[in-house]
Amino acid sequence: MNERIIGLVKRVNGPVIEAMDVSDAMMLELVRVGEVRLVGEIIKLEVESAVIQVYEDTTGIAPGDNIYGSDMPLSVELGPGLIGTIYDGIQRPLEEIFKISDQYIERGIQCPSLDRDKKWHFIPLDLEAGFTVTGSMIIGSVQETERVEHKILTPPDMNGTLISIMPEGDYTVEEPIALVETQSGEKQLFLMHRWPIRSSRPVTERIPLSIPLITGQRVIDTLFPIAKGGTVAIPGGFGTGKTMIQHAIAKWCDAAIIVYIGCGERGNEMTDVLTEFPKLVDPFTGRSLMERTILIANTSNMPVSAREASIYTGVTLAEYYRDQGFHVAVMADSTSRWAEALRELSGRMEEMPAEEGFPAYLPTRIAEFYERAGFMKTLSGQTGSISIIGAVSPPGGDFSEPVTQHTKRFVRCFWGLDRQLANARHYPAISWLDSYSEYLDEVTPWWEEQVGTSWVQNRAEIMELLQKEVRLLQVVKLVGPDALPDSQRFIIEVCTLFKNAFLQQNAFDDIDRYSTTPKQMKMMEIILTYWRRGYQAIRRGVTLVKLRRIKVLQDIVKMKFAISNDDLEGFDKLNDRLERALNQLESIYV
Amino acid sequence: MSDSTILYETQKKLLAGREYIGVDRIDGPLVFIRKTHPVGYRELVECIDENGCTRLGMVLDTSSTIVVAQIFGGTSGLRMPSTHIRFRGEPLRIEVTEKMLGRIFNGLGQPIDGGPAPVGDEELNVNGKPINPTAREYPRDFIQTGISVIDGMNTLIRGQKLPIFSGNGLPHNELAAQIARQAKIRGAETKFAVVFAAMGVKHDVARYFIKSFEESGVLENVALFLSLADDPSIERLITPRTALTLAEYLAFERDMHVLIIMTDMANYCESLREISTIRGEIPSRKGYPGYLYSDLAELYERSGMLKGYKGSITQLPILTMPNDDISHPIPDLTGYITEGQIVFEREMHGRGIYPPVAGLPSLSRLMKDGIGKDMTREDHPHLASQLFAAYSYVKDVRNLASVIGEEELTPLDHQYLEFGEAFERKFVTQDKNENRTVEETLNLGWEALSLLPVEELHRVTEEELEKYYG
Ligand SMILES: Nc1ncnc2c1ncn2[C@@H]1O[C@H](COP(=O)(O)OP(=O)(O)OP(=O)(O)O)[C@@H](O)[C@H]1O
Ligand SMILES: [Mg+2]
Questions:
Q1: Which of A6, A306, A308, B271 has the highest local Cβ count within 10 Å?
Q2: pTM score of the predicted model
Q3: Do the Cβ atoms of A109 and A303 come closer than 8 Å?
Q4: What is the ipTM of this complex?
Q5: Is there a contact between B133 and A66 if contact means CB atoms under 8 Å apart?
């Protein structure tokens, strides 16, 4: 990095620095401020002046301090070694920083994102000299973790002809592995390359979504599914369970790579992931969950501008793995903190605010972020996807605030968390009334093929019951339950059962924390058997009291804990017992 | 470093001691000074008044033309021409030592108990630095407070930040003092200390705590930082930082388990709003600055445990919710940062229930890893979950009863009402000096649950029912 002075500090206002005597600087250039070399980025350029957003605490920076240019935009390093690492918002490896500066994060630490000494075993593709090299092309691979075969890609903007490629062997990320003739001369290729975080990596085209991202969370997969390549927002007041849902999905979803962005949230939550994930085993591959996970941690007490950058850092890493043909799931907890960082920076720059102090470009930024999700055909002809799951933390839990409202415009799936449910410890507190998924039609064929043809009808039937229940409960609130006939009280009964037995899912229970799709289907069918046959029974004169007394109901409520994913027969047996009990009841009435 | 840079840096150091006579503007607690040498952001400022008294301050905005500083001692009595200003070239630091325990200080860490200033072992920047998440140790040690509604349902964990959301006139001080008195790790002898930071509270509140510490014989383990209602409001902004700096020192360099009580966070936030308004910043909600969240996080995140260190910092912030409104920005943003909250309910207080902890909105997020087999008792997680579920149903039934009348309720609903009554009167309610073991607490929970039919208890296992029900 050739360092040169591009200007001087004129004013310091928190993380925003005004610069004077600026020459030879470029927009979005990565800069270093003062003799402590704080990392910053030029976000506004005028004649001889500039505005810089600084990613570290600016204490002690004074007017007149030097500003050093780097000649490159704020970028991330992409190559083997990302998986299993925890980075801050501008991709500094926190574990390395810990070795340098102990428990507190010192300022001005320069530390490469990817290990410079580690050798990776590179297996080149069989390419001959003269081969046309294009952007994001796969030229070989490295086994990054036991479960991730990392494809080595050319930089997306590469164009030329291959001169040579190195043989199979061990290389560091800085040792050249190929040589390419380009218009601007010969270029070396390495196991890693850089990409600016604020530009999305190019792809060939978007592919329509059709495969669900299976999360193992019943209320999500069965009621409000998300497709691979889709976007979803989880808004909810404090303590309603956003982080728990994000953690659960990061643990159990069937994506190949997880990028978890802790954006302005608690330090202990990141520690929790760091201590728990390595011990957990992924049900699909039997490998440790950490072997597919990248963490970005810019906690609430870390500098606010790095928080702004963190979600771009995260999604750029995701795009890199997508370009290798992986399905990536990105969790951003919480996008509200990112929006607030935007607001703070905008305020310090004295920009005109729009709603609630947020800058007028907030919706554009939100849209740009979620647009980086999708199911794509990559430049190298692979398919890969990025699904984005963003938590939103509305002030006062009020969904009418700007961040929730604008996010709603750009996502197609919405899991609204309900304070009442959370207070009653009904978790996940996803409201079945406010939530929706526009991916339902897209993923239905998959479910019908893979799990069962009755999936979509079952879902529709239970959703209808839940809707009916709302109206019935309103009546009960006014006149009490006795005013309703048994057939209607039975609807309430079934919905209560459905909520207790199916929708509630305990993230801390070893069996319940994750349900396979067949288990979800079987559970749903047992509950619907009770509903369908019970309703018939009532019409034949069986009383509600009798229906409620069926002993097997106790086991149905607890089936989620009692019967494991691989014991599908257990569900069939339970269903048989239910049928027998209902037969017996009915036999008295025929 | 180039020659010119070296020259510049040396000049900056030399100029740091320079004293300016006269300021250019005073607005509330802010002073504005023109034409200074290059002054660093957040640098310490000494503001000397006519009588030669020094008030400390901090640089909030610095530029080549004007510097803005907030004066913690307030600006009352300052005259523009006769005020002297010195910039110290470094941020505010305080001297810390174990000997600060048993002493009383103002918000800046200067003794106000008549004793001499203790000689510090170390001088630390009060602003602290962000803790590296990889350096943290996930907290999981159960603290027994002897208070059923906390131990049983909102368990406090060592290293947790668990605020009390209260209202004016509710017994939050009593509860905080009771926790400070009774809190213990079972079966462990540990070095502990209490750090108490008062922001804008009345003298009698400070006196109440001092008396309570005195009576339980722990006063020599307590350091108090008092910035009371009649002290300059701006000093409240520095008080929690000073207190936390000592707490960090005691926890991570002296291996102590530190409980820090900070009261009242609402006053802290108001001072922050005051500064923000004077500076003409664009407000977010209710006039509070957009950075209130980050600012509070800077305080609340200074808690927890660290890998390889023996000590810990457990935070118990107290805040009074304006208008008892939990969605007000102060409790709201606090709840978004802390690891749960103990929420007080005025209605319960009215019914004579102490502690008036609202069952449903209260939460301890770290409880999950600190309770159960080998930590408290194997039935604890399910029991707590069942109590929450049942109590939430009680609330529904009470609402229903208030509309249709109690006579119209089903027999089951009546049983729930009975349970609710028992839960509030026997489980939640306890004496201000009553110290229950966690087993006593759990047994009381089962006693209340036993008023419900067994079919209603979905969240507990057969074995637990067999062992504890009825
Ligand atoms: N699926 C679940 N199973 C069991 N407990 C849960 C579940 N979801 C949430 N909880 C409980 O709710 C608490 C709060 O959840 P969480 O931390 O996810 O909230 P949040 O919405 O992220 O809050 P904040 O906005 O303040 O970060 C958890 O600590 C846990 O006790
Ligand atoms: Mg959260």
A1: A308
A2: 0.94
A3: no
A4: 0.92
A5: no
